[in-house]
Design goal:
The chain has 89 residues and is α+β, with helices and mostly antiparallel strands. It has helices at 71-75, 82-87; strands at 20-25, 28-35, 44-45, 52-53, 59-64, 78-80. 12% of the residues lie in helices and 30% in strands. The strands form two sheets. It has a four-stranded antiparallel beta sheet. It has a two-stranded antiparallel sheet with strand order 3-4.
Length: 89
């Protein structure tokens, strides 16, 4: 039986904009998406408190609104604890 070709998985995958919202912070306009715990499968490090966001933990994904679908914007997105994001000026 012939082998099936493997598909290439990109290092960063775009997040759908349909569940995103824009928020203004002191440093500009951010695109923010709530990540339900059921969809959080990896460990991330919150840029505010430097603590881990463990798999299964609901949190927020945010990136500056500078061409939100562009590769640099996708690569610059960060995962935040919801409380850390809400405290951010």
């Amino acid at each position: 039986m012939p082998r099936r070709a493997r598909t290439h998985t990109p290092l960063t995958r775009p997040l759908p904009a349909s569940h995103s919202r824009a928020e203004m912070k002191a440093d500009g306009r951010w695109i923010v998406r709530t990540m339900p715990g059921a969809d959080a499968a990896k460990t991330y490090r919150c840029p505010a408190c430097e603590a881990e966001i463990r798999p299964g933990t609901a949190h927020v994904v945010a990136w500056l609104d500078e061409g939100a679908g562009s590769e640099p914007a996708v690569a610059a997105r960060r995962h935040w604890h919801t409380a850390c994001w809400e405290r951010r000026p």
